Amino acid sequence: MNYIPSLKYENGQLTIIDQTRLPVETIWLPIHDLNTACEAIVALRVRGAPAIGVMAALSAIVVFRNSVKAGEAASVERFLEICNTLRKTRPTAVNLFYAMDRMSAKAAGLEGLAADELQQQLEAEAVAIYREDVELCDAIGRHGATLIKEGATVLTHCNTGSLATAGRGTALGAIYTAFFEEAKKIKVINTETRPLLQGARLTSYELVTAGIPTTLITDSMAAMVMKQRRVDLVMVGADRIARNGDSANKIGTLALSILAKHYGIPFYVLAPSTTIDTTIADGSAIVIEERTADEVRSFGERRTAPANVNVFNPAFDVAPAELISGIVTEKGVFHGPYDFR
């Protein structure tokens, strides 16, 4: 099948699909400068941990190339400054830091090269990160599909498909693989994912476009569909996974993991190994991004709550390892106790 791409990199030009406009409009946004790149990440025009990492790597080389004036020498120091600025855009998704660390390390080893050669080698590294994510998604899809039985209904949360990665996706990647490559007759239930409706706007859009049977529910309906045995397994993505398997993902994931455990439904986390942060022992060390109050006070562009009401708006929560039936990476399906080193 043809997946909806989150970004395109052609002839040295980077464009991203503005996900804040989906599914009503499909707008491709060119990335030329650092301010545009950073704003796109912060405003969730590009989102999904793997996609953010790939986009940041490609943005770094585009911004670097465009910032060098005619006749001016390209500076490794300048490139490192660009990477450092991109690192500061969002705190939770580890793939961003992985990509910026990798690009920075590459640049540090290229000191003294002529400008053209420096840019070529940095571009090659960014493109390698892009292509590797496509391959990672394919492998995650294959491993994840083994967990989906014929006739199963999968509940998923937020968006973990091609819009969240450079490839077919993580949790949705497994669903795509099971449906298209293994011809399993499966169904999906996807949550709307408040407050920004990534499930309703993006996952529903991907699945309907692909022709996979899906039913949209509000987040608060998850307990009911599990109690009624309408769900056979839960598959979600992750933005950062600790060494012990604690997994940070879109807010609401913790509740789903608790519900799945209560009702005896398998709960799987699917993510590339680049999402595993081996520097932290458990989820207590994961920094949880808090976003603006207006995301909760409004529904789309319409105010739905008093302008002065207090709001708590964490973007992520952490599902503890003991509630996770398995963690799927490109290397296979892992079961607890987890020890990622």
UniProtKB/TrEMBL annotation:
Its EC number is 5.3.1.23. The record marks C158 as: Transition state stabilizer. Pathway: Amino-acid biosynthesis; L-methionine biosynthesis via salvage pathway; L-methionine from S-methyl-5-thio-alpha-D-ribose 1-phosphate: step 1/6. GO terms for biological process: L-methionine salvage from methylthioadenosine. It comes from the Bacteria. The active site is at D239. Catalyzes the interconversion of methylthioribose-1-phosphate (MTR-1-P) into methylthioribulose-1-phosphate (MTRu-1-P). This is Methylthioribose-1-phosphate isomerase. It comes from Leptonema illini DSM 21528.
